[in-house]
Amino acid sequence: MKEYEITFARSGDVFRGAPEEVVRSLRVSSQFESDISDKAYMRHFARRHNRFVGGERVLASSPTKFLISLGLSELISRFVISERE
C-alpha cells in the first residue's frame, strides 16, 4: 500500500497516510469545510486552487489523483509517495 505525504509551504503542516486518510485529514483541518464530504472538499479545493493559484490544475476525480496533482502545486513544499507494509 502506498503512503502519501504532503507538506504545505506556508504553514509547514504535514499530512501523511493513504490517499483517503490524507484527504479526510485535510478536510477535518479546514476552517470552513470540515462539515462536508471528502468528495465535496476535493471539488471545492480544486476549484479554488485552479481559479486563484494557477499553475498545475488540481484534479478532484479521486483522492489519489487529487493528491498527486496537489503535489505539483506551488502550495506544496514537499510531496513524497512511499510504500507502506
Walk me through this protein's architecture.
- The protein has 85 residues and is of the alpha+beta class.
- It has one domain (2-83).
- It has three helices and three strands, in the order ββαααβ.
- A three-stranded antiparallel beta sheet has the order 2-1-3, with helices on one face.
- A hairpin with a 5-residue loop joins strand 1 and strand 2 (14-17).
Gross morphology is globular
The mean pLDDT is 94
Number of strands: 3
Content-based structural category: alpha+beta
Helix and strand succession?
A: EEHHHE
Strand content: 15-25%
Beginning-to-end CA distance, first to last residue: 6 Å
Sheet with the most strands, sense and barrel status: 3 strands, antiparallel
- Domain count: the total is 1
Low confidence ranges? none
The number of helical segments is 3
Helical amount? 40-55%
Radius of gyration: 12 Å
Side by side, the strands of the main sheet go: 2-1-3
How is this structure best summarized?
It is built from three helices and three strands, in the order ββαααβ. It has about 80 residues and is an alpha+beta fold. The chain has one domain.
What attributes characterize this protein structure?
85 residues, alpha+beta, three-stranded antiparallel sheet, 3 helices, 3 strands, 42% helix, 22% strand
